[in-house]
């Protein structure tokens, strides 16, 4: 990378920072919102355009571009296509409920529905653990890995066998991303997401075109299982899971996950939020799937099974050298947008659900924002080396997400579909769900195969049973445990009210 490309990289990053700062400063000057609403919900002033941009770029980062392309198969596009269902439910089921209950965090809804704070505290703790131990380090790790691949930076082993270059790049991402969240709050995150998203999506589509052009639009010679959209029982997404666990995973991620829903809650009203979510859903179906799978499959034909190195190697091969600074800037922006968004959600959860509730209700939110952000940033950097040992970053993330997603969704399902539920019963179902998933995933698998560089598990000896199937079992059994605990431990009989009444309540 020559001096000109370095200048292009830093020039674009500086321009992005300047325009974000200018937009945020002007909006803050016009806003009369309190400091906490400005930090946590952008003063309630995000238009649909920025809601769409924030939702899209919070999800889309190098863990998708690197991790999903690293699987080197079309099948993983289902993770993105199925997201349409979750976004539609967010728009027309969950957002009206959140707004009607005046929620800043999704956990506030649970406290109101259960009329008890224990479930809110437990789930906030799980969200915080997921953000700090899973999302934040995974984003900066995958981004650093891509930058190393793109520019051919050789690993350099340092203390405890850790790659010095990887840690340095990850640390820079973490510091800058945290600065956006700490200094600008959700408004800065949303503006950064939207402005950078236009360039990221556009350039990623260019990579797709140049990739297929590099192989003469000819996918022959690539194994059929890498081109198929119908997965067998040994694939990452067996076909039957599209109709079971995949649906519930999408509902959790898009409709009850603080990292996503916080952006929808920052619109001035329900209709504006719904417009933004629908725009994000269209992008999710039409643009995102090809950019997260096509380059990886092409890389398989060009380089073989190179795993998570695929996207960086492919980009280095097909993009003209003069664009390297431009593309590096866009990738850096993708990392920063997701990292800062998750960081802002982390700060919000801790400040609203823990610090104000248990430590100091009158705390200065600006100072607290700074302290929490810096602490989370340091922890995320320290955890980066754990992800460097993963066979497949996207497969690891999906399995780890299962520890939280279905147990948390069970608490939402019980809260919205039943009345007369004790919060402690919901906690019992939640604890059971986390425990049974962890025990089943990490102790009860009987065999594992390495195929295409990815690890697959055969649960309890059944070839057809996949971790996505296990999630369905965890969800419904967690709800059952909550209902049984509610009835026989706390002496309350839950009343089923259904979706229609839940939405109107």
Structural class: mainly alpha
Number of helices: 22
Number of DSSP strand runs: 4
Strand order of the largest sheet: 1-4
Percent range for β-strand residues: under 5%
Per CATH, what is the topology? Sodium/glucose cotransporter
* Whole-number tally of structural domains: 1
What is the CA-based Rg, rounded? 22 Å
Give the overall pLDDT as a whole number.
Answer: 84
Which assembly state applies to the chains in this document? single chain
Distance between the termini: 58 Å
Low-pLDDT stretches are 446-458
What is the helix/strand order?
HHHHHHHHHHHHHHHHHHHEHEEHEH
Biggest sheet, in brief? 2 strands, antiparallel
Secondary structure: helix percent: over 70%
| Architecture per CATH nomenclature, i.e. the level-2 architecture | Up-down Bundle
Can you tell me the CATH superfamily? Sodium/glucose cotransporter
Q: Shape, please?
A: globular
Instruction: Name the CATH class.
Output: Mainly Alpha
Brief characterization of the structure:
Helix content is 73%, strand content 3%.
Can you lay out the helices and strands and say which pair or pack?
Blueprint lengths: L2 H28 L4 H7 L6 H12 L2 H4 L1 H5 L5 H5 L1 H18 L5 H9 L3 H34 L12 H51 L9 H4 L17 H11 L2 H7 L5 H17 L1 H16 L6 H9 L5 H36 L5 H23 L5 H25 E2 L3 H21 L1 E7 L2 E6 L7 H22 L6 E2 L1 H7 L1
Antiparallel strand pairs: 1-4, 2-3
Helix pairs in contact: 1-10, 1-17, 2-10, 3-10, 3-13, 3-14, 3-17, 7-12, 7-14, 8-9, 9-10, 9-16, 9-17, 9-18, 9-19, 9-20, 10-15, 10-17, 10-18, 12-19, 12-21, 15-16, 17-18, 19-20, 19-21, 20-21
């Amino acid at each position: 990378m020559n001096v000109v490309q370095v200048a292009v990289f830093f020039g674009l990053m500086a321009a992005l920072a300047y325009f974000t700062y200018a937009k945020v400063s002007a909006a803050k000057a016009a806003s009369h919102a309190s400091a906490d609403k400005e930090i946590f919900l952008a003063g309630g002033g995000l238009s649909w355009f920025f809601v769409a941009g924030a939702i899209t770029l919070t999800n889309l980062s190098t863990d998708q571009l690197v991790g999903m392309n690293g699987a080197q198969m079309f099948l993983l596009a289902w993770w993105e296509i199925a997201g349409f269902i979750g976004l539609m439910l967010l728009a027309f089921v969950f957002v009206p409920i959140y707004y009607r209950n005046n929620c800043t965090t999704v956990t506030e809804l649970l406290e109101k529905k259960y009329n008890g704070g224990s479930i809110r505290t437990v789930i906030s703790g799980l969200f915080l653990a997921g953000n700090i131990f899973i999302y934040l380090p995974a984003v900066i790790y995958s981004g650093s890995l891509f930058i190393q691949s793109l520019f051919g930076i050789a690993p350099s082993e340092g203390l405890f066998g850790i790659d010095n270059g990887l840690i340095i790049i990850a640390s820079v991402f973490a510091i800058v991303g945290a600065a956006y969240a700490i200094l600008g709050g959700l408004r800065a995150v949303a503006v950064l997401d939207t402005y950078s998203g236009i360039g990221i999506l556009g350039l990623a589509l260019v990579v797709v075109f140049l990739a297929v052009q590099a192989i003469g639009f000819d996918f022959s010679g690539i194994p059929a299982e890498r081109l198929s959209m119908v997965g067998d029982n040994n694939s990452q997404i067996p076909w039957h899971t599209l109709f079971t666990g995949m649906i519930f995973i999408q509902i959790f991620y898009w409709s009850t996950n603080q990292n996503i829903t916080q952006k929808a809650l920052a619109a001035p009203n329900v209709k504006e939020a719904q417009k933004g979510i629908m725009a994000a859903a269209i992008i999710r179906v039409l643009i995102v799937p090809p950019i997260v799978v096509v380059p990886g499959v092409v890389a398989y034909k060009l380089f073989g099974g190179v795993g998570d190195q695929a996207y960086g190697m492919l980009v280095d091969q097909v993009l003209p050298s003069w664009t390297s600074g431009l593309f590096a800037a866009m990738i850096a922006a993708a990392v920063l947008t997701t990292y800062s968004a998750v960081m802002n959600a982390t700060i919000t959860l801790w400040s609203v659900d823990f610090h104000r509730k248990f430590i100091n209700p009158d705390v200065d939110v600006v100072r607290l924002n700074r302290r929490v952000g810096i602490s989370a940033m340091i922890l995320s950097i320290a955890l980066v080396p754990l992800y460097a040992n993963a066979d497949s970053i996207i497969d690891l993330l999906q399995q780890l997400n299962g520890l939280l997603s279905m147990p948390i969704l069970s608490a939402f399902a019980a809260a919205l579909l039943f009345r007369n539920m004790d919060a402690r019963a919901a906690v019992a179902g939640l604890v059971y769900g986390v425990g049974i998933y962890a025990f089943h995933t990490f102790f009860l698998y009987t065999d594992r195969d390495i195929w295409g560089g990815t690890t697959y598990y055969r649960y309890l000896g059944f070839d057809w049973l996949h971790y996505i199937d296990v999630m369905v079992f965890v969800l419904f059994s967690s709800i059952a445990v909550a209902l049984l605990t509610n009835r026989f431990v706390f002496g309350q009989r839950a009343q089923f009210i259904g979706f229609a009444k839940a939405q109107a309540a």
